[in-house]
Amino acid sequence: MNEVRVAKDVFHGVQNLSRATDQYINLDHGDPTMYEVYWKQMGDRTTLVLSGWQSISYFSDTKNHCWFLEPSFANAVTKLHNLVGNAQTRSYHIVVGTGSTQLFQAALYALCPSNAPEPMSIVSAAPFYSSYPLIIDCLKSGLYKWKGDASKFNKGEPYIELVTSPNNPDGSIRQAVVNGSGGILVHDLAYYWPQYTPISFQADHDIMLFTVSKSTGHAGIRIGWALVKDKEVAKKMTKFIEISSIGVSKDSQLRAAKILDVIADTYEHTEKFDKVKPFFHYGNNEMARRWRQLRSAVNKGQTFSLPDFPVEKCNFSGQRFGTQPAFAWLKCEKAVNDCESFLRKHKILTRSGTQFGSSKRYVRISLISHKEEYDEFIQRLSLLSSMDT
Ligand code: PMP
């Protein structure tokens, strides 16, 4: 009786699946539209009115080595890090960029000697963020060259290692893997925020990159920042941004400042935010819910598997939880050896493991899209999982 029922359910499931698969679900990009609902709830609290006379000058603060850095944005960044406790700010220099994508290039420009006989090797442990090789080799620079997986790197030459933690795509908490002398580290901490992972220590690396794209969900305002220990490196990074885009949008910095300040306010002035959860608590709950849904879908069969994450105490929230990354690093087991093509056949668009220096058995799936899209994805995945290929 039960078996008949299961068979019927699966049959109806397949029918539903073919109906639902009329449309593609695109979870290839890490577009953080999940956060729209939260910011809508906030109403006008983050509204900023800018008049035509504002943001006229190229300059923001001529006393600062980073002369295009808006002081209100710098203050908001410092305040937020101090509140969350995820990074040291005292005695660091802040450099603002058009997304952390620009800052990453600025860091490479600043760190690579201009007169070296060979381009500097840039490495990152696989699976690495798929944009690194594209950005690094795009202009075929004489300064640097992508050398792939850091764990296979021959330490005999100078290098820069990119350490992404939590890592995009697999969510792992990382440290440098190359143990050579003459190496320089750049820490990409885009996801070191309490909605994604426990804040277990205050990071104090030489160069740390952050972005509003993944911290607040405002990818479209294109603002990132670097915390840089060495003043000369910060100055050179500033030079790169001066040469490549003569600074960074003031309007965007002012918007970002407003949003970061409101986040801090949701903790410091809770009385002003009736019925609206503090920002990181909202994000943490939402990510936890999405990961529960995903694990339950995957556990319906043997077709897929997911990485596990150790549970730790978060010094910010006081809660214990495991990393709940912005992306799922999904593995197709058994018969399915090209996971991206398999899911694409079922109209779920993901990014193949091959783009991250890994195997096509893996795909990266964004978990930070609109709720409706995510729920639809979970339904399709549950059916695929229970059908067992
Ligand atoms: N680093 C990592 C690890 C990322 O995942 C992303 C965004 N996908 C970036 C940098 C780039 O962020 P931004 O939008 O600020 O350029």
TrEMBL record:
One of its GO terms (biological process) is amino acid metabolic process. It comes from the Eukaryota. It holds the Pfam family Alliinase_C. SUPFAM superfamilies: PLP-dependent transferases. Residues 25-382 form the Alliinase C-terminal domain. Keywords: Aminotransferase, Pyridoxal phosphate, Transferase. CDD domains: AAT_like. Its cofactor is pyridoxal 5'-phosphate. GO terms for molecular function: carbon-sulfur lyase activity; transaminase activity. Belongs to the alliinase family. This is Tryptophan aminotransferase-related protein 2.
